[in-house]
Structure formats: structure tokens, C-alpha cells
Automatic annotation (TrEMBL):
Residue ranges crossing the lipid bilayer per the database entry: 27-45, 57-81, 87-106, 113-130, 136-157, 169-187, 199-217, 229-248, 254-273
SUPFAM superfamilies named among the record's database cross-references: Multidrug resistance efflux transporter EmrE
Residue ranges of domain EamA in the record: 17-129, 140-268
InterPro entries (UniProt xref): EamA_dom (IPR000620), EmrE-like (IPR037185)
Descriptive protein name: DMT family transporter
Keyword line: Membrane, Transmembrane, Transmembrane helix
A Pfam entry, by short name: EamA
Origin species: Vreelandella salicampi
GO cellular component: membrane
């Protein structure tokens, strides 16, 4: 489910390029449209229990919404003030941060295979963005670190309420993002009217792909440690790079392809190994 969500949102960077709007405009429409998309998904899934789905999240859900909005601001503004490669490299540290936060606050110990997978994926992501990485701007790097830390803290916070689905609170996160963008823009004075082509891509991305993908990802901590959710999200970096290559012709360097293969291979091997362990455990339980 988590990996599927990451694949669904993988065209994010490509579609932002095709939309071609300034960052404040993207934040405003991204916030409003994703909030509507998340709300529609909650209504479809919960029916008459629509309101209760939000109530169950409580104050923890508000914290999740705040952290998710921070990660959105960090990602969009990080790409404005520093190189895209820097942003992706820093975002790749999210599983490491999540593992550390889970150890400190939840006392969750990660198995050795998870730590190995984290460092292999960090290496693979570094190879993918090697050509685009650089000194950049400390402001942009700080925004990227905010995104990585907020994402990791979000998944860790979800683990404090086992069995409670926090994905409905992403509606509130979208409204927070849109409100801040509206205020900073002078209540619309600095915004421009999107073209009809931009509207099409905005609707596809912000009303369709992002709400569906992030709903699946946000449900990941119900079943997986926060570090594993962060690891699976790294598949977005690989597939997103392939989207840009396929559609816009921005071919990655051979070393970038090697890095992508390392990330996907690591996630696949780890998943298959853990599946094998799960099957062995089930066999032992049935035998006893």
C-alpha cells in the first residue's frame, strides 16, 4: 500500500514543471485542491461516519496535519532556493531521521536489515542526483531538511496511536498550506491566473494523484515502522526521475541509473526477505 502510494505521486516533479506556475500559486492551488481531494476520499470511504473519521484523530491528528503542511512547504520552497538534487539527497535522510525518532520516543528498535537498507538507499539516491547536487543555498537546504524532518516526525507521531487512521487529517493540512500561501501573496494580489493547460495538470496532480497517493502513504504507519514507510517513499525519487526522462527527455547519467537500480533492488530484496520471515513465522504458529 505504501509503495503503491509512492508510485502514484511519482509524477509530482514532472507535473509541477508542466504546470509552470510560481511557487506561491502552486502552494495555494495545491493546498485547496488536495484538501478537496482528501475530503472526497474520506467521504467515499466513511459514508455516514465522515465526521467521526476526523474526530477519532484527536489532537494527534492536528499534529499530523501541521507536520504534513511543513513537509509540503519544505519540499516546494526547497526546490526554489537550492538545487533539486540537494533537496532529494536531504529528503533521502527521512528514513534515518524516522528511525532515530522512533528509537527515542517510541523505543522501537530497528533490525539490522533496516539500517543496512537505509544506508544503501541513501547511497543510491546520492548517485541519482549527483549531477544536480551542489553547494546550493543554505536557506534551500534548510527547507529541504524541514521537509525530511517533518515527514519523519509525521510517520513517527502516527505510530503513537495504533489502529487510528490519520489520513483524514491531510484535509486540514491542505487548508493550512493554502491559507499561508494566500496570506503571503497579499490575499491574491501577487497571484496569476493559471492557463487552461495549467488547470488540467493542476487538477490531475492536486485533485487526483496527490490525495490518493498520500492517503495510502499516510496509512502506512498503521502497519509498518516509520523508518520502513520512509524507505518505501524513496521509490518515488527513482520513478519520478524516469517520468522526467520519458516525457521531457532529461536523461539521467549512467551513474544515476545505477543509483536507481540500487534503491529499487534494496527495497525489493528487503521486502522479499521480510515476506519470507513472515511466512516462516506463520508456519511455526500453525505447527504449534
Amino acid at each position: 500500500m505504501t509503495a503503491g502510494g509512492a508510485l502514484i505521486i511519482s509524477p509530482d516533479a514532472l507535473l509541477i514543471k508542466l504546470i509552470g506556475l510560481p511557487d506561491l500559486d502552486i502552494l495555494l492551488w495545491r493546498g485547496l485542491l488536495t484538501a478537496l481531494g482528501f475530503m472526497l476520499i474520506v467521504a467515499f470511504r466513511q459514508g455516514r461516519g465522515f465526521v467521526n473519521a476526523y474526530r477519532r484523530c484527536g489532537w494527534t491528528g492536528i499534529g499530523v496535519a501541521v507536520l504534513f503542511s511543513f513537509s509540503t512547504f519544505g519540499f516546494v520552497l526547497g526546490n526554489q532556493y537550492t538545487k533539486g538534487g540537494n533537496v532529494l539527497m536531504i529528503l533521502a535522510s527521512a528514513p534515518l531521521i524516522a528511525a532515530a525518532l522512533s528509537r527515542v520516543f517510541l523505543h522501537e528498535r530497528q533490525p539490522r536489515r533496516t539500517w543496512v537498507a537505509i544506508f544503501l538507499c541513501l547511497l543510491g539516491t546520492s548517485l541519482i542526483v549527483l549531477d544536480d547536487a551542489g553547494a546550493g543555498s543554505w536557506v534551500g537546504n534548510a527547507f529541504a531538511l524541514l521537509a525530511a524532518t517533518s515527514l519523519a516526525a509525521n510517520f513517527t507521531l502516527c505510530r503513537t496511536r495504533p489502529g487510528v487512521d490519520m489520513s483524514p487529517m491531510l484535509t486540514l493540512a491542505g487548508l493550512m498550506v493554502a491559507t499561508v500561501a494566500l496570506v503571503v501573496s497579499g490575499f491574491g494580489e501577487r497571484l496569476i491566473v493559471p492557463s487552461s493547460a495549467s488547470w488540467v495538470w493542476l487538477v490531475v496532480l492536486c485533485l487526483g494523484l496527490l490525495p490518493l497517493g498520500f492517503t495510502l502513504i499516510q496509512r502506512g504507519p498503521l502497519y509498518l515502522p516509520a523508518a520502513d514507510v520512509g524507505l518505501l517513499m524513496l521509490s518515488e525519487v527513482v520513478v519520478g526521475t524516469l517520468w522526467v526522462w520519458w516525457i521531457l527527455g532529461e536523461q539521467p547519467a549512467p551513474i544515476g541509473l545505477l543509483g536507481g537500480a540500487l534503491v529499487i533492488g534494496t527495497l525489493l530484496v528487503k521486502g522479499l526477505y521480510e515476506r519470507r520471515l513472515e511466512m516462516r513465522q506463520r508456519s511455526r504458529v500453525q505447527a504449534s
